[in-house]
Amino acid sequence: MAATSERGPVTVRSMLPILGASTIGTAIEWYDFFLYGFLAATVFPKLFFPELDPVAGTIAAFTTNFVGFLARPLGGAFFGWFGDRVGRKSTLIATLLLMGIATALMGLLPGYAQIGLAAPLLLSILRFLQGAGVGGEWGGSVLLSMEFGDDRRRGFWTSWPQTGVPVGLALSALAVLAFQALFPGTAFFTIGWRIPFLLSAVLIVVGLYIRLRILETPAFRRVKQEGRVSHIPVLEVFRHYWREIILSALLRSAEQAPFYIFTTFLLAYGVKVLKLST
């Protein structure tokens, strides 16, 4: 494989910078994505939908959360095309910037009381951008690890970006917990909830520093040199692998639905039904 022939034997030590760039970046992106889900269950109904009753407000907040899921396949298709045209490294830098900017802007959004319906509309737009960033990030990180690795341990190399998902989940939960403790009561609903979003800007700087230090993948460099870059790769994928795509999407749906019930809906259920403290 190109990674072996151009860089010498692929070892864990030689892969550490690549695995770090893909895994840390993925963790940062999922920190942003999960953070929204946590606050959609607790803060956003009051801040962005105060005119609705509590149940309707919660449903409206989760609807904006759903916008991110609609954007994920679109982001995956667009950044997949982008990555096949300009390279894996540039794509991962672009997705990290998109996600970080959208998340930081959420922390600056005024609520419904200040700008009316524009508040939930802007929130939905930023959530869409978040989803598009995650859609491009996940596949791109896996591809980065795969194309730097070797065939023999492809599954091992590509499993590392996936570990960024629970890390991002834990970091976002800890951030919400910490700032709830620092800003108790109504202070969290006015200023405390914004700080975890604004911290994303700091995390993005760290992620960019790591990713700017890596090279383009050997496999992409070879394809570019040979002039074999596909013009519309998404059409080729659907033409040859449509069965696998549909099957994978259905399998992921069966796994994702209960996962997000556990990580987001249960928060709203605990507050609204069980009357637990936010």
Walkthrough of the structure:
By secondary structure, the chain is mainly alpha-helical. It has one domain: Growth Hormone, Chain: A (Up-down Bundle), CATH 1.20.1250. It is built from 13 helices and no strands. It is elongated and about 60 Å long. Mean pLDDT is 88; it is low at 1-6.
SSE succession:
HHHHHHHHHHHHH
CATH class categorisation = Mainly Alpha
Please outline the major beta sheet.
none
Low-confidence stretches: 1-6
Number of domains: 1
Mean pLDDT: 88
How many strands? 0
Kindly state the percentage of residues in helix.
over 70%
Shape: elongated
Tell me the β content: under 5%
Q: Mind telling me which CATH architecture this is?
A: Up-down Bundle
Summarize the structure.
It is built from 13 helices and no strands.
List keywords for this structure.
disordered N terminus; mainly alpha; 13 helices; 278 residues; Growth Hormone, Chain: A; 0% strand
